[in-house]
TrEMBL record:
Organism annotation: Ruminococcus flavefaciens 007c
GO biological process, one term: gluconeogenesis
UniProt KW keywords: Lyase
Enzyme Commission code(s) on record: 4.1.1.3
MF annotations from Gene Ontology: lyase activity; pyruvate carboxylase activity
The protein's name: Oxaloacetate decarboxylase
Length: 465
């Protein structure tokens, strides 16, 4: 019997897309032992924005979260999303830092590392791939990920060539990451058939979102066209800017006569567990109902779910939600000016923030962010198409963009040592150092809070004695 397996995303991308990654570990610890027996291909639970959110908003050590996940999901493949040379931050890091991060990720419990570059510049994922292979256990899977988007320069043939390159590089699986949910059913059919012809029996995975309403139809065509794994979310955290529902796809596959490997009773139990959690965040305003709807206009704007929920949160904080439609309409214009980059982290944040700035300031590119300037300088890699001359002239003047990996211009071996020294006695582990390298301000605050909490607990213990 044919088999299509499912990756469960509720612990990472589903809540990232619906509620800006504000789901604390304590909310779902009680269901992990059941999830471990559900029969998922993998459980996506780390990486992406979870690292930032743990430190910045939730007061959690992301490494401790990972260790707890490993402890409570001993039989499951734990999956993370890694932004290639960006790791989990918003800039490029040197090769030795990338290698150390991956070593620590595998050491602390990660099995599947899904690696992508926002520009599909594969020079920026090679170091991460090599490190994954270097520190791999018998369970480790290196998954090469393509950021799917639509533009005049992104064609089916182009994507097929990318997949061939990922296979040649040595990845174990390939994932098509349709972060905006814009892939149509017949695009999926042509793309997946073409890719499967090119890569043979290598595992092919589809990640999409329900943002535009296309996802269920697209996944149906993907299944008919030979996809091996699909990303889904437990149904109460599905839909809207999230993924299609796990249970729905389980029953659909059953109708097809296709084996999924899932335990029906357990996946329904998982959904029942998360229902009151979802309602709690709707009631307190952290899960905005706007994220739960279908927005066909996203087929025009090409906006991924996580980007949309973050833009809603940011405009709400600035009391500027009345500018939402204008900012949304500005996004494709900024994207075209920047050479049609796929709207995936960190480029989605960069494009989104610049679009909001253009609208709020009232003049396009009067203020250009540091990140956009670095992008134009070539520090993120090669754009898919030429950048608008107006932007190039504003940022570079008579200068030229770099045409090599920016990491090749840096000296190796200094960043980790400097970070350890900067932390001083706050540092207890290599994991603390790595957190600081990715998010220095947030990590210092977290480590100071951790130290103060432990000192207070010690005082209470002495007083009780």
């Amino acid at each position: 019997m044919k088999k299509v397996q499912l990756t469960e995303t509720v612990l990472r991308d589903a809540n990232q897309s619906l509620m800006a990654t504000r789901l604390p570990y304590s909310d779902y610890e009680g269901i992990l032992s059941d999830m471990d027996k559900a029969g998922y291909y993998s459980i996506e639970c780390w990486g992406g924005a979870t690292f930032d959110s743990c430190l910045r908003y939730l007061g959690e050590d992301p490494w401790e979260r990972l260790r707890n996940l490993r402890k409570n999901l001993p039989n499951s493949r734990l999956q993370m999303l890694l932004r290639g040379q960006n790791l989990l931050g918003y800039k490029h890091y040197h090769d030795d830092v990338v290698e150390k991060f991956i070593e620590l990720s595998i050491k602390n419990g990660i099995d599947v590392i899904r690696i992508f570059d926002a520009l599909n510049d594969f020079r920026n994922i090679e170091t991460a791939l090599n490190a994954t292979k270097k520190y791999a256990t018998e369970k480790t899977i290196a998954s090469g990920c393509i950021s799917y988007t639509q533009s005049p320069v992104h064609t089916v043939d182009k994507y097929i060539e990318m997949c061939k390159e990922l296979k040649t590089m040595g990845f174990d699986t390939i994932c098509l990451k349709d972060m905006a949910g814009t892939m149509s059913p017949y695009e999926a059919e042509h793309l997946i058939k073409g890719i499967k012809d090119a890569i043979g029996d290598m595992t092919l995975i589809l990640h999409t979102h329900c943002t535009t309403g296309m996802a269920y139809m697209t996944i149906t065509k993907a299944i008919e066209s030979g996809i091996d794994v699909i990303d889904t979310a437990t149904s109460c955290f599905s839909g809207g800017t999230s993924q299609p529902a796990t249970e729905t796809m389980f029953y659909a596959l059953e109708q097809y006569g296709i084996e999924s490997g899932l335990n029906e009773d357990i996946i329904n139990k998982v959904n029942d567990y998360f229902k009151p959690i979802k309602q709690k965040y709707i009631d307190n305003g952290q899960l905005n109902p706007k994220s739960l709807g279908t927005d066909a206009q996203a087929l025009v704007y090409k906006v991924p779910g996580g980007m949309l929920s973050n833009m809603i949160a940011n405009l709400t904080d600035m009391h500027a939600m009345d500018k939402f439609d204008d900012a949304l309409a500005e996004i494709p214009k900024v994207r075209a000016d920047m050479g049609y980059p796929p709207l995936v982290t960190p480029l989605s944040q960069m494009v989104g923030n610049q679009a909001v700035t253009n609208v709020l300031v009232g003049e396009r590119y009067k203020n250009i962010s540091k990140e956009i300037k670095n992008y134009i300088k070539g520090e993120y890699g090669n754009p898919p198409a030429p950048i608008a001359q107006e932007l190039v002239e504003k940022v570079l003047g008579d200068g030229e963009a770099v045409d090599c990996r920016i990491e090749d211009q840096k000296r190796t071996g200094e960043e980790f040592a400097a970070a350890r020294e900067a932390l001083g006695d706050l540092c207890r582990s290599e994991e603390d150092v790595m957190s600081y390298i990715c998010y220095p301000d947030q990590t210092v605050k977290f480590l100071n809070d951790r130290k103060a909490k432990e000192e207070n607990e010690a005082v209470y213990t002495i007083e009780e004695m």
